[in-house]
Every structure is written in structure tokens, then in C-alpha cells.
Structure to design on (585 residues):
């Protein structure tokens, strides 16, 4: 079609243009009788040609059940002269899926401005709306995963961990969540041990097993039995959900997902089951994040059980030691009674013996106490270092190298006569022991971020930065559980929280500046950056030793303490030897 002048623009050509538009357009007279429409609207009405609409009303079309409401809208527009605008209207297709419309109706006026008809326009915004819903679902699962990391670090026992994770699931938008333990009884029953959200007696009134029977073929039982994630997208249409369907629909459950909680060398010991209020609620991205949550729960259980086992063992040792002390006291008492029965001279000798025995006993107790303190300290450091390595994305050699670098820098500062108010041989030994714990906070960072094979985006980098404050929290909790002052842990806390601070105040997490940054953290910063530069990473190649030395000296007074950089310049040959000796294979 072509036009050469405005006079050639006919009604047919106008109809042709309307038929090309993606919007659905119609117009009516003031009695709500259709005067015309475009092709898109005619197809919605079940007509083959827009001309077929002329003279019909909404009562004559496929949506006759809504005709009274539509007629009322039209008459209100004619009466008031005001448009009707609906930014979003949710409808159900006759075939089942939901769709959303952006709908508008305007009055058609004559030359006197009086309403004489209706012009209607609407468009399908379902694709946009579904994309928004998908984004919300992924976001809630991501929020749940991040918050669960914090809950795991602070959990004191399994039950508090389960309860907190269920509560967090409700907080981010799910309707109900519960954890069920797999029992070893004949029925292979599943016992709820924690829940949150809209329950209304659901868990008390239903029967769930992890056996291969009708009560074990739902998501929870199947997840435990087959050790895999199981998704039920619709309680109404899924035949496996029949035993629980009526109870679930009554409360408002439409879909659920069960995730196995796996204990090492045992298998699935429980399942976390989460419920949603809409069918087809769990998409692939959301399921992947929730599976990370289940792995995190399993790791948390291992950590809690390991700590409880260690506490039990220590209590047993303390109990046996107390029994041994009592037995020795009884022996000493009987010996004293025998000596007292002798003559006065024997009495004085006995008193002297008893006095000497008390001195020996106190000395022995002191030796035992000192040994126990060092053993407890070494075990705590070993456990914390193992925990750090288990969750770190670096190699074990990184820990060895940075530990030796730190000792070399501290020793050089002592030779230079710098920071003598803090540095001595004991301080150097403590910094050496504390250095492996500098990145222990990565225990609280999700695997999706920690082990990402590439550069992190802005949102992921903000999450990664929290490993400094998480490290402080983990080490502070370890410090509180010790009855004695533990200077190694004190220094480890300062290193974990401050080794990413910069001398000029541009670092994180607190933006500390110059000597307000702990000395141990400033030393660790130089050692950590040098090792990162000369080591290969997924996001960078390894630098030469000379390039790394130049970079650190260049950042003296900005990122690094100038005095420590001077010490590094004197020890750079030692750094190179260490990096070569403990080079990653």
C-alpha cells in the first residue's frame, strides 16, 4: 500500500494499519454495540474478519460470562466521560495458563465534547510478568542462601540450625518449611524436628515415610530414599501427592520441593521440604540455589556434631583426671594417718614428707595444666585451620607460604628496631601461628561465589568481602569457648578482620587508616598480596617475582604500611626463595 496525498487515506487503509498493530483495538457506540475492531481483537473474539464484529455486543462473544461487568464499565465511561485504565489484569485462559493484560478504555466524543462511544485498547504483558516472577523466585532463594550462611556460623546445635533455616525460608517468601529426620524403625518413618510458616496441624495429621510405599513416594520420602532433589509442581495434578492433597490444598500449598540433607559416609539423614503458594513455582535457577542451601545445611550439621564430639571427649578426659586426683588424695590421706601413728620424730618427718608431696603435687598439676593449655590451643588452631582449608578456594601451599612470609617480615622489623612496643620473639611466634586463619571467614561464603571459575560481579564481590567480618565472628566464638586468655586467637581475630584494610583508608570492611589497622593485619596484607600476585588464579596469570616486588613498593603509603614495605624490600630475596620452595604443583 502507498499514499501520495492525505485525500487518498481511506477508511480501508486505516483499517489495514490497525490490523498490523500488535495491540488489540475495538470501538463501540454508546449502547456498547461494536462498530469495528482490528484483526488481533477479532481473533480473540473467535472471528475471522473484523467486519463480523459490527453490531454485536459482549453478550454475543466468547466472553459472554463477563459481559454484564464489561457493559457496566462502558456505561460508566459514557456517563462520567472518564477513561477506564487497568495497568495489570490477571486472567485464566480456557486452556489453563494464566495471562496478564494491560487494558484501557476511553470515551469517543462528538464535536460538542459529549461521549458518543468507547475506544478500547489492550495488550498481552504475560511474557514480561512471567520474567518478573522468575526473577523474584531466584532472588528469594538467593536471599535464603546468604542468610543461612550466617545462621550456620552462629548455630549452637542442630535443632537451632534447622529452626533458623525454616524461619528464614518463611521470611523470604515461602509459605512453609520443615525438616524431617529419617528414622531407622520398621516403618521407615520421617519425624518433623523443626518447622515454620503456615502449618495448621498439617505435620501432625499426615503420614510420611522414606520407604517404597504410597506414603514414601512424595517429595520428602523420595528425596531421602533416593538421595536427590524432588520437585512437586502441582498438588492437584500430581498423582503421587494423593495421600496429602486435601490437607495441603486446604492450607494453600500448591507446590513443594524436598532436598536431601546428606551426612558423610552415611547418606541422607533428613530432608528440608519447602512449600509455595503457586503451582509450577520452582524453576531451575531457584532449585540450584536451594540445592546449595541443602549442602550448606549438611556442612553445618557436620561442624556442629564434630564440635559436640570434641566437647564430650574433653569432658570425659576431665572426669577421668578428677577421679585420678581423688584416688591420689585418698592414698595420701592413708599414708598421713599411718605416719601420724609413729613417734613425734616420725610425725615431724611425716609432716616434712607431706609438705614436700604437696609441693611436688602442685608442680605436677602446674605441668599438667601447662601441657593441657598448649594441647588445647594446638588442637583449636588445627581444627580452625582445617575448617579454613576445607572452605578456601586456595591451595594448602598458600597457607604455608604466607605463614613463612609473615614470620620473615616480623623478624626483619625487629632487626630494624621498628614497632618494638609490640614486636618481640613471642609476638613473632604468635603471628606465625595465627597467619593460617586469615581467610577462615570464607567458611560463610556460598560455593557459587567462592568457587566461581571467573571474576566476580559487583553483587558477588560485596558478599565475598563479608569473609572478613565472618572470620572475626568465628574466631571470637572460638575465643569465648576457651576459659583461658588465648593471645593466638586474639591476633588471628585482628588478622582476619583487618588484612584487607589499606594504609590510606580505602580498604574494607571498616575503612581503617594507617596505624589504626592492627600491626599483624598490616604485615599479613603485604604477605597475602605478594603470594596472590606470584600465584596463578582462575581470573589472572602468575606474575614474576620482579613484577610483584615493583607493585608492592609502588603501593607503599597507599595500600601498605611504608615501614613494612621497607622490611619487605630487605627480605624480597627470602620471599622469592619461599615462593619457589613451596610452589604449587
Amino acid at each position: 500500500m502507498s499514499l501520495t496525498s492525505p485525500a487518498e487515506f481511506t477508511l480501508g487503509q486505516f483499517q489495514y494499519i490497525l490490523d498490523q498493530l500488535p495491540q488489540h483495538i475495538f470501538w463501540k457506540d454508546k449502547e456498547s454495540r461494536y462498530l469495528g475492531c482490528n484483526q488481533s481483537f477479532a481473533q480473540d473474539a473467535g472471528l475471522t474478519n473484523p467486519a463480523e464484529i459490527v453490531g454485536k455486543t459482549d453478550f454475543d462473544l466468547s466472553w459472554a460470562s463477563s459481559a454484564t461487568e464489561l457493559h457496566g464499565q462502558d456505561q460508566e465511561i459514557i456517563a462520567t466521560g472518564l477513561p477506564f485504565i487497568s495497568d495489570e489484569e490477571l486472567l485464566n485462559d480456557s486452556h489453563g495458563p494464566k495471562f496478564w493484560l494491560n487494558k484501557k478504555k476511553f470515551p469517543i466524543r462528538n464535536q460538542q465534547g459529549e461521549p458518543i462511544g468507547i475506544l478500547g485498547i489492550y495488550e498481552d504483558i504475560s511474557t514480561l510478568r512471567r520474567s518478573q516472577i522468575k526473577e523474584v523466585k531466584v532472588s528469594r532463594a538467593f536471599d535464603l542462601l546468604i542468610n543461612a550462611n550466617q545462621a550456620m556460623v552462629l548455630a549452637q546445635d542442630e535443632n537451632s540450625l534447622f529452626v533458623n533455616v525454616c524461619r528464614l525460608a518463611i521470611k523470604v517468601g515461602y509459605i512453609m518449611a520443615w525438616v524431617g529426620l529419617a528414622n531407622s524403625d520398621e516403618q521407615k518413618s520421617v519425624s518433623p524436628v523443626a518447622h515454620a510458616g503456615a502449618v495448621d496441624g498439617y505435620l501432625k495429621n499426615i503420614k510420611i515415610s522414606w520407604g517404597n510405599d504410597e506414603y514414601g513416594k512424595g517429595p520428602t520420602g523420595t528425596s531421602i530414599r533416593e538421595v536427590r532433589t524432588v520437585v512437586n509442581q502441582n498438588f492437584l495434578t500430581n498423582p503421587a501427592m494423593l495421600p496429602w492433597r486435601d490437607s495441603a490444598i486446604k492450607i494453600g500449598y500448591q507446590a513443594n520441593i524436598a532436598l536431601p540433607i546428606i551426612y558423610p559416609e552415611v547418606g541422607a539423614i533428613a530432608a528440608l521440604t519447602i512449600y509455595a503458594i503457586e503451582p509450577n513455582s520452582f524453576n531451575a535457577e531457584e532449585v540450584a540455589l536451594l540445592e546449595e542451601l541443602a549442602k550448606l545445611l549438611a556442612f553445618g550439621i557436620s561442624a556442629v556434631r564434630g564440635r559436640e564430639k570434641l566437647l564430650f571427649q574433653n569432658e570425659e578426659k576431665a572426669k577421668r583426671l578428677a577421679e585420678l586426683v581423688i584416688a591420689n588424695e585418698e592414698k595420701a590421706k592413708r599414708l598421713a594417718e599411718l605416719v601420724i601413728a609413729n613417734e613425734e620424730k616420725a610425725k615431724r618427718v611425716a609432716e616434712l614428707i607431706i609438705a614436700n608431696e604437696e609441693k611436688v603435687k602442685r608442680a605436677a598439676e602446674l605441668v599438667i595444666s601447662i601441657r593441657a593449655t598448649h594441647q588445647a590451643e594446638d588442637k583449636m588452631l588445627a581444627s580452625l585451620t582445617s575448617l579454613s582449608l576445607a572452605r578456601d578456594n586456595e591451595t594448602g601451599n598458600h597457607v604455608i607460604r604466607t605463614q613463612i612470609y609473615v614470620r620473615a617480615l616480623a623478624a626483619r622489623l625487629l632487626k630494624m628496631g621498628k614497632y618494638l612496643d609490640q614486636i618481640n620473639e613471642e609476638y613473632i611466634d604468635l603471628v606465625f601461628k595465627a597467619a593460617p586463619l586469615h581467610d577462615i571467614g570464607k567458611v560463610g561464603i556460598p560455593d557459587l561465589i567462592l568457587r566461581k571459575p571467573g571474576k566476580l560481579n559487583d553483587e558477588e564481590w560485596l558478599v565475598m568481602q563479608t569473609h572478613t567480618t565472618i572470620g572475626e565472628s568465628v574466631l571470637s566464638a572460638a575465643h569465648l569457648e576457651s576459659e583461658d586468655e588465648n593471645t593466638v586467637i586474639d591476633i588471628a581475630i585482628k588478622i582476619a578482620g583487618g588484612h584487607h584494610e589499606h594504609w590510606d583508608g580505602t580498604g574494607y570492611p571498616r575503612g581503617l587508616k594507617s596505624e589504626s589497622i592492627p600491626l599483624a593485619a598490616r604485615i599479613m596484607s603485604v604477605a597475602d598480596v605478594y603470594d596472590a600476585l606470584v600465584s596463578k588464579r582462575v581470573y589472572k596469570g602468575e606474575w614474576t617475582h620482579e613484577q610483584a616486588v615493583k607493585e608492592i613498593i609502588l603501593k607503599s603509603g597507599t595500600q601498605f604500611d611504608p615501614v613494612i614495605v621497607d622490611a619487605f624490600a630487605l627480605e624480597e630475596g627470602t620471599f622469592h626463595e619461599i615462593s619457589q620452595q613451596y610452589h604449587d604443583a
